[in-house]
Amino acid sequence: MQRCCLRLIRDGLVRSAHDCSEGGLAVAVAESAMLGGLGFKGTLAPEERWDAALFGEGGGSDVI
Q: In the chain, at which residue ranges do the beta strands (DSSP E only) sit?
């Protein structure tokens, strides 16, 4: 995972990264948006529970 992230950064495809280990995807996106002085707009269509998709701490593979 670290090699993948480093390559994405090197290739200019990623500017920052944040883990979902404390609060899940929703908290990570909110923290990143607030700290960066930006907002966020996107869509999410989980196949199962919304609470697990937004606040689950199991990693990105649970959502994607």
A: none
Over its length of 64 residues, how does the chain's per-residue pLDDT go in tens digits? 889 988 998 999 987 778 888 889 889 888 888 887 878 888 888 888 998 888 988 755 544 4
Separation between Cα atoms, residue 27 and residue 39, nearest integer Å: 13
Residue with tokens 């990264």: 17
58 Cβ neighbours under 8 A, 6+ residues apart:
52
For residue 11 the two structure tokens come to 């290739």
* 3 CB-near residues (< 8 Å, 6+ apart): none
In this structure, are residues 28 and 18 in contact, taking their beta carbons and an 8 Å threshold? Answer: yes
Burial of residue 47 (CB within 10 Å: 0-12, 13-18, 19+) is: exposed
